Structure formats: structure tokens, C-alpha cells
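Hello Y.,

Per our agreement to keep a running log of every chain we model this quarter, I'm adding this entry. I've kept the format consistent with earlier entries: sequence first, then predicted structure.
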Amino acid sequence: MAMAKKTVTSWKGKKVYPVLAPENFEFKEVGETLASEPEKTKGRTVNVSLGELLGDRSKNYLNLVFEVEEVKGGKAYTRFKEFFIPIGYLRSKVRKRTTKIDYLRDLDVGGEKMRIEVMVLSHHKFSVVQKEEIKARMAEVITEHSSGKPEKLIQNTLFGKLGTEIYKRIKAICPVTRVEVYHLKMLR
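Predicted structure for the entry above:
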């Protein structure tokens, strides 16, 4: 019984494509990918820290995922796919005697589907009424920021404007120590 021969593409036949961040990150190079044909790079992802992208070490804990969308002129152009803060960093912020509220919501921003996750921390216990009021105010702020283009919401999330706005609106309900928008993902 004869077996079919498997063809293996040689490394010599492959080309290196520089991977560039989206326009709102000034098309900075975030990595390289190897492929025999440009079409084969589509859908590949690249993880990069915001600190590395901006040259600011204080933002190294913020992670971005970009997905290759197209190849033009020998360069792979990407789009934003996901932003997240690692679980280890989040756990380091939740201490003994700290109360936490998690908030998750799916959004429609400029025709794009997105999911956002927010964490609120306090040294005080939240009553049921306070939790409901805090979640209602978070929903208001997120709705205000999600009217417009997805790029605007992404920028506001990455640079802390959204978290700061939520903090300002909810601190009158109960003393809050921290508000962290820890996950933003494109749903497709």
C-alpha cells in the first residue's frame, strides 16, 4: 500500500513580513511573520505591551493583541483585536477586606461589536442598592463613550480616561479605591 507524499514548504521559499500596528498607533512595527504567500498571514495575531509600543515602561502591564488584516507592499497591516490586563496584576490589587464589583457588557460601537469588562474595588462593603447604582452609572459612562467610532473608545480605555470618568461618577455613592477597565475585545 503506497502512502501519499506530504509536501513540505522550504524555509527558503518563505518571506518575512513586518507587522505594523494600526493607524492610531502610527503604524509602528510590532513584530514579524513568516509566510510563503501574503494571503497566509491574514488572521495571525501579535501580542505587544502598551509600554513597548509607546516607549513608556509604566504601561508594560497593559497588553494589546493585533490581528493581521491585509498585506500591502510587503508589510502586514493590523487591526485592534483585544486589550487586557493580566490576571496576576489584577489579583495583586484585590487585598484582604476589599470588596469587588465586576461589570461585563457587550456594546455596538460604530457598527462593531465589542465586549468590555470593568472592576471596581473598595475597602467598604457595598449594599445591594449601592451595587445597582454603581452598575447603572458605569452603564451611563460606557454608553456615552461608545457613541462614535471604536477607535475613540479604544483610546479612552487604553489611556485611562474611561476608568477615570467612571471613578468620578461613582465615588459619591460609596468610597472607591480603584476602577480598572481590564478587558476590551472586538467580537466578530
